[in-house]
């Protein structure tokens, strides 16, 4: 089966998932993002003309503020024309199918789609459907993947830790429903992180999660011991309804990241969160705002990483 | 019409014949095997040199989508598919719209099917009104109208007291109860087997216990009520083992599997290919191997196509939103041949799973080529290779997980009730 993300030259054609993404491409994206960070760190943010004359369509079938905004900023810094469409969760209820929507936007001469959808695999479907000159970036599909989030997380880790091959990383929380966690796991293992842990109660872990190359912990005390990186996941409030958890309070008591638990990790450990945070549910405010937290730099790096992905896609030959 | 099928290799699992023998048909029946009855004069001669002559296939699960879902398929299109697949008898689940819960609907369906003069249709009646799992249907009336068994199709029956009473009532009259084991709470919004692939792809999952818990209930109720239970579309290794143990314990339970599950596993979903969105879900390779073992040792009695044509728009959606199901009748024979070849099983043995065994499940006299039997015959070329191209399928449903596969074995003639209904 051909990797649907790569073109026949082995270049990135779409960014759909970090699963099976070649390590050279991951490294290229991180290196390219580093260039954009130094551009961004200059006094004035310079626009680069890499996507001049191109149209980027942000199609969000699921609500998002942060991700959509950072994609928009990234595209504008690359001098692209940006169109934002908030289609809501069910365009089909209006009678138009997903692919009809995409066809319509293609007819408006879109060069690149940034898509978020509530159904796993929706972005693969779109990527398979569009013409070869159109590129698709997955901005989150169901529980499946959120590759730019994972790549910005890798960028953040590399920024603070330099290397990957000597790290111990813990991902804490609702792995079952998390596209972020899946993409993080694949990115970390691709980059050669020797020990990736997941920490959660059994109700929030998918079957055979260990086959993704992670070690499973149900206890924070053991799971966080001596880790270099703690990646927290957001806990959706609706998880309390499906009999997955009794209460947010009990969850925080056993799985919330507090100062005491953070102290189990290495003294120079960093704390990450994809946002938006639920303070007092998965993370204590003092940790979120504390010295180990790199949560805000993640957001800044996110723009550079998304610029890197977009410019690489625009540069790939058909 | 008097037909003489000559020079073919006759394989009839029921009569344990695998030999070069001619078949003679007159007045809708088989009148001679090997030699013509006295005074036989053929009006039509089919030269079956190099071909194999078998009883017409019997498919215990083929959705025709009528009434109610004509946008997915019609009786006309699906009967043509049946003929192209050599399927001369089929039973259709009651999950039409409205469901087959009224004798009038069943009579209408049978009448429509008869007027097309192709495959014989044996409807499975609804076990409860509207398949809602609350009130029993008029099983005696439905049986008189032509129903051969009663089922909930894929609709859940959560109230176990209703299930028990339905089985008690059916068993009073010796009616067959065909049940698909799936706990609706555990299956909920699941779309794929709860395993490695669903975990990787982030697809809502259906665990094996959804099958085994429901199956356990059914088996215990069958023991309690004496109902003739048939387990439909078994999908897991654990499920197969439970049926095996029940049979060993003397319970008169039977079981079928879909051809998709004999050949495919969760791995085939690949990058969210909705052609592989099936119900029950494709499970692990271990489950697939166990289904094959169950077929070999007789735990599983029959292979069906689980033919479920779906319209194109309903498949051009993200995996979880796409409708489950695949077209299948035209692929049933080649997929059984493929299975036989892979298992190094004789055709005599293998073909029993799609001829005499399913006929016995239905309680009909088809599925064999004895003298005096109904002249339902399939003649196929075992050597022809052909590529599955959806557009070329007769079925209105074009979605199949075997799209692009090369199949070996192709139906050349299908004879139903003594007339040639299909020939290429």
What does this protein look like?
The complex is a heterodimer of chains A (318) and B (424). With 318 residues, chain A is an alpha/beta fold. Chain A folds into two domains: 23-145 and 299-315, 3-Layer(aba) Sandwich (Rossmann fold), CATH 3.40.50.1370; 147-298, Rossmann fold (3-Layer(aba) Sandwich), CATH 3.40.50. Helices cover 37% and strands 14% of the residues of chain A. Chain A is built from eleven helices and nine strands. In chain A, helix 6 (179-190) links the parallel strand 5 and strand 6 (195-199). In chain A, helix 2 crosses helix 11 and helix 5 crosses helix 11. The model of chain A has no long low-confidence stretch (mean pLDDT 92). By secondary structure, chain B is α/β, with parallel strands linked by helices. Chain B has two domains: 3-53 and 373-423, Urease, subunit C, domain 1 (Roll); 56-362, TIM Barrel (Alpha-Beta Barrel). In chain B, 30% of the residues lie in helices and 22% in strands. Chain B has helices spanning 75-84, 103-116, 139-145, 160-172, 184-187, 196-201, 208-225, 237-248, 259-263, 285-296, 312-315, 332-342, 347-350, 356-362; strands at residues 3-6, 9-12, 17-20, 23-26, 29-33, 44-47, 52-55, 57-59, 87-92, 120-126, 149-151, 176-179, 192-193, 205-206, 228-231, 254-258, 302-304, 377-387, 406-416, 419-423. In chain B, the strands form four sheets. Chain B has an eight-stranded parallel β-sheet with strand order 8-9-10-11-12-15-16-17, with helices on both faces. Chain B has a six-stranded mixed β-sheet with strand order 3-2-7-18-19-20, with helices on one face. Chain B starts with a strand and ends with a strand. The relative contact order of chain B is 0.17. The model of chain B has no long low-confidence stretch (mean pLDDT 97). The A-B interface holds A 1, 4, 19, 92, 97-99, 117, 119-122, 124-125, 128, 141-145, 179, 182, 206-209, 211-212 and B 194-196, 198-205, 207, 270-272, 313, 316-321.
């Amino acid at each position: 089966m051909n990797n649907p993300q790569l073109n026949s030259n082995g270049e990135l054609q779409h960014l759909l998932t970090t699963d099976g993404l070649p390590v050279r491409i991951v490294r290229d994206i991180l290196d390219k993002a580093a260039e954009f960070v130094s551009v961004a760190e200059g006094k004035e943010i310079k626009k680069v003309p890499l996507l001049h004359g191109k149209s980027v369509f942000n199609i969000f079938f699921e609500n998002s503020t942060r991700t959509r905004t950072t994609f928009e900023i990234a595209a504008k810094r690359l001098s692209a024309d940006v169109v934002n469409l908030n289609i809501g969760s069910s365009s089909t209820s209006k009678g138009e199918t997903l692919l009809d929507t995409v066809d319509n936007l293609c007819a408006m001469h879109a060069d690149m789609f940034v898509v978020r959808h509530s159904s796993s695999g929706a972005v693969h479907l779109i990527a398979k459907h569009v013409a070869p000159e159109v590129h698709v970036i997955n901005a989150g599909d169901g529980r499946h993947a959120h590759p730019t989030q994972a790549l910005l997380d890798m960028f953040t880790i590399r920024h603070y830790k330099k290397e990957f091959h000597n790290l111990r990383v813990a991902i804490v929380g609702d792995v079952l429903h998390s596209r972020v966690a899946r993409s993080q796991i694949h990115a970390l293992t691709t980059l050669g992180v020797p020990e990736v842990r997941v920490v959660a109660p059994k109700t929030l872990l998918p079957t055979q999660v260990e086959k993704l190359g992670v070690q499973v912990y149900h206890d924070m005390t053991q799971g966080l011991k001596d880790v270099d990186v703690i990646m927290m996941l957001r806990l959706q409030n609706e998880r309390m309804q499906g009999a997955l958890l009794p209460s947010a309070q009990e969850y925080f008591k056993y799985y919330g990241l507090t100062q005491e638990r953070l102290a189990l990790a290495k003294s120079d450990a960093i704390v990450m969160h994809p946002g938006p945070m639920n303070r007092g549910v998965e993370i204590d405010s003092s940790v979120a705002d504390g010295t180990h937290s790199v949560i805000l730099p993640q957001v800044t790096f996110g723009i550079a990483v998304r610029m890197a992905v977009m410019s690489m896609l625009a540069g790939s030959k058909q | 019409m008097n037909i003489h099928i000559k020079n073919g290799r006759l394989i009839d699992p029921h009569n344990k014949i695998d030999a070069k023998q001619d078949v003679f048909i007159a007045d809708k029946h088989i009148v001679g095997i090997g030699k013509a009855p006295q005074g036989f004069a053929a009006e039509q001669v089919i030269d079956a040199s190099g071909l194999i002559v078998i009883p017409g296939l019997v498919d215990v699960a083929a959705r025709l989508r009528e009434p109610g879902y004509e946008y997915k398929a019609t009786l006309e299109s699906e009967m043509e598919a049946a003929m192209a697949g050599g399927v001369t008898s089929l039973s259709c689940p009651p999950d039409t719209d409205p469901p087959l819960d009224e004798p009038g609907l069943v009579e209408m369906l049978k009448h429509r099917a008869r007027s097309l003069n192709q495959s014989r249709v044996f409807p499975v009646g609804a076990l409860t009104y509207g398949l809602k799992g609350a009130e029993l249907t008029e099983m005696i009336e439905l049986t008189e109208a032509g129903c051969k068994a009663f089922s909930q199709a894929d609709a859940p029956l959560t109230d176990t007291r209703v299930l028990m009473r339905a089985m008690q009532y059916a068993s009073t009259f010796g009616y067959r109860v065909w049940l698909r084991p799936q706990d609706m709470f555990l299956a909920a919004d699941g779309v794929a087997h709860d395993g490695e692939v669903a975990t990787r792809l982030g697809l809502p999952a259906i665990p094996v216990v959804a099958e085994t818990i429901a199956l356990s209930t059914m088996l215990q109720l069958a023991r309690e009520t004496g109902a003739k239970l048939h387990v439909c579309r078994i999908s897991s290794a654990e499920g197969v083992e439970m049926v095996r143990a029940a049979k060993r314990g003397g319970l008169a339970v039977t079981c079928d599997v879909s051809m998709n599950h004999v050949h495919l596993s969760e791995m085939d979903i690949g990058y969210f290919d909705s052609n592989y969105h099936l119900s029950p879900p494709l499970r692990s390779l271990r489950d697939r191997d166990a289904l094959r073992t169950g077929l070999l040792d007789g735990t599983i009695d029959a292979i069906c196509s689980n033919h479920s044509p779906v319209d194109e728009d309903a498949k051009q959606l993200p995996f979880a939103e796409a409708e489950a199901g695949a077209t299948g009748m035209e692929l049933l024979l080649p997929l059984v041949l493929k299975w036989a070849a892979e298992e190094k099983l004789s055709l005599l043995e293998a073909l029993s799973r799609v001829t005499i065994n399913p006929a016995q499940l239905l309680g009909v006299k088809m599925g064999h080529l004895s003298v005096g039997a109904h002249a339902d015959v399939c003649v196929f070329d075992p050597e022809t290779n052909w590529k599955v191209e959806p557009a070329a399928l007769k079925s209105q449903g074009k979605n199949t997980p075997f799209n692009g596969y090369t199949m070996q074995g192709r139906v050349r003639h299908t004879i139903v009730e003594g007339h040639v209904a299909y020939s290429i």
